[in-house]
Amino acid sequence: MSERTPTGTVMPTAGDLNGHQSAGPAVLAAPAGPIDPLRRLGRWRRRTATMPGEASGRLGLAVLALALFVYFSVSAENFFQAGSIATMGLTMASVLIVVTGTMALLIAGTVDISIGTMFSLVAVIAGQIATATYSTPLTLLAGPLVGALLGLANGVMVRLLKISPLIVTIATMIAFGGLAKVVTGGLAVSDFPPSLMRLGRTAVVGQVSVQVIVALVIFAVGGFVLVRTRPGLRVYAMGGDSRAASAAGVAVGRTTVALFTVNGALVGVAATLTIARLGTVDPLTGQGFEFAVLTAAILGGVAFAGGSGRPLGVIIGVATIGILQAGLIFIGLRDYWQEVATGAVLVTALAADQLLERTRDTGGLLAAVRRARGRSAPTAEAETGDGGDSAATLGRLPRQGPLGATVLAARGLRRDFGSVQALRGVDVEVRAGEVLCLLGDNGAGKSTLIKILSGADRADAGTVEFLGEPVTYSSTRQARDAGIRTVYQDLALVPTLSVVHNFVLGDEPTRRIAGVVPVRDEAAAARRTAAGLAELGIRVPDPYTTVRRLSGGQRQAVAIARAIVGGARLVILDEPTAALGVRQTRYVLEAVRRLADNGTAVILITHDIKTVFAVADSVAVLRLGRVVHSGPVDDVGEHSLVRLMAGL
Ligand SMILES: Nc1ncnc2c1ncn2[C@@H]1O[C@H](COP(=O)(O)OP(=O)(O)OP(=O)(O)O)[C@@H](O)[C@H]1O
């Protein structure tokens, strides 16, 4: 049976071979002019760099596929013939159709392992419908519909049960396999309408069949949606960090369910076209299919961990598996040896891939070679100039102008959690252009206070005035729209997305190709990013660097710049300098100072006294839910602040 597949070892792998881009120097000097990355990037590089996630340049894999093809063409007589290549295309068409959905699921950080038995179940149901009704249109409609329903069921369960999608879909894999046997009583189904079988066997161009054309169209459309459209970027963001994506406004739950449903529908399309071609179907039709699909995707560079992978890599992955499977049959290897050989080649390819991935994380192959020769490669930190701490001091970053009007005033805030009084009548006030540092030991109530100010929680008593008006926000979105922006240290940015894509995530500019097809407007996104970074004087020479390649200081600075897009009046920063060295801290604080000097009010939460004396205009010290000191920073010494925090 042609859909029988190799049993590949599925291992997590990540990213690409070409995706490394140097973080480059990030200098906080005078505000830079608009950055136009597009000018400096070559045409090809520009096209790939503006795709989300990291590239899946599978050069090694393409070479392997080519080498296998040449080897089989030489060693098997009939391998290099139009007929056998067409058969190979047919065999892989089902994989190509389903890998489109599976690629999207994996990139979104989830997986559906039940696609093999789902394929069987849809195939037997569509087969029964074809036999019972003798209607080709009904069969063609029912297959994808049943698949979509099964996918939807998987998606809803993954969403509602909130347990690993691997576990949920292993359970449904078993159930679907059983149901497929129940539907047919374990027997094969045949006797389909001739028009259905004609559709399955008709060649459209030369020897290229309908199934191959459908597969290519589906893959091309799916790949395009992933790398060029707004929903595609959101899928990549979810896989990179679903909490950060959700904080940026991505509807993670709904998108997950939609992806499972589309994946199921594609399984339905593949199963229906397969029964049309074979003219018969049994409950084991899809056995092992999931391994072919998942191996093709992962070999093609889609990271099992989510957030990475490109369609071009995946299509090479599909081709490699197709060539390998067909070639082993052509050279006459017995089935069991075919399985052993397939597994061995896949494990070797994945191991080579992991090796390259690891060297890339430490600066790429070139750096590894340099290190081996005893010459040190420049590190990201040395390049950026904001990493080393030797002899660096924070110094004081004085305010450039007078303070403005009061932006936010909270009075008598109280919040109880059962018997714990987290806030016991807290007053805080911050003015335009002011940096207010909020200090306090663990459990003092700092997080509770910022949750209330940012709309994530409600106070039990007390009032908040924002821009002179009393306000109560019932969501962070409301507070955000009003001009209160909060930057949490850990969920500010999606690490696997570039600076530009992080900047626009949740509010991506779009344009229409030929006035019809909506795609992300990369030029507008790059412009918006450049303007945002320039506002705080942050320079990143390559805005298409993925965030995980930036230094900690750069990441925080970019997160702050991103938060103020669209007009912020108050920015709340949750420990932006925690775990940073002195130079990186200074780099971030310079951005904070510039933010305040531009007229924004800033509340900065910190445990670090040095940060306070570098940037604060005023301080408020919280202890056990009360403000035990507040006032200008100049009125208090370092020693007194430490004693106040400790309650001495
Ligand atoms: N959801 C909650 N349920 C119960 N108690 C809570 C909750 N949130 C906070 N608390 C309690 O309220 C008090 C203040 O907590 P909060 O997290 O605001 O302190 P914090 O100053 O931010 O501390 P840290 O610096 O450790 O984050 C603590 O005693 C904490 O245990």
Provide a descriptive summary of the structure in words.
- Residues 376-398 are annotated as: Disordered.
- GO terms for molecular function: ATP binding; ATP hydrolysis activity; transmembrane transporter activity.
- It is found in: Cell membrane.
- The chain crosses the membrane at residues 55-74, 86-108, 115-134, 140-161, 166-188, 208-227, 248-276, 288-305, 312-333.
- Residues 408-648 form the ABC transporter domain.
- The chain has 648 residues and is of the alpha/beta class.
- The protein folds into 2 domains: 84-330, ABC transporter involved in vitamin B12 uptake, BtuC; 406-646, 3-Layer(aba) Sandwich (Rossmann fold), CATH 3.40.50.
- The protein is 53% helix and 13% strand.
- It has 25 helices and 16 strands.
- The strands form 5 sheets. It has a 6-stranded mixed β-sheet, with helices on both faces. It has a 4-stranded antiparallel β-sheet with strand order 6-5-8-9, covered by helices on one side. Strands 1-4 form a two-stranded antiparallel ribbon.
- A hairpin with a 2-residue loop joins strand 5 and strand 6 (420-431).
- Helix 3 (59-75) packs parallel to helix 14, helix 5 runs parallel beside helix 7 and helix 15 crosses helix 16.
- The protein is elongated.
- Residues 1-35 and 375-391 have low confidence and may be disordered.
- The structure holds adenosine-5'-triphosphate.
- Adenosine-5'-triphosphate (ATP) is lined by residues 417, 420, 422, 440, 442-448.
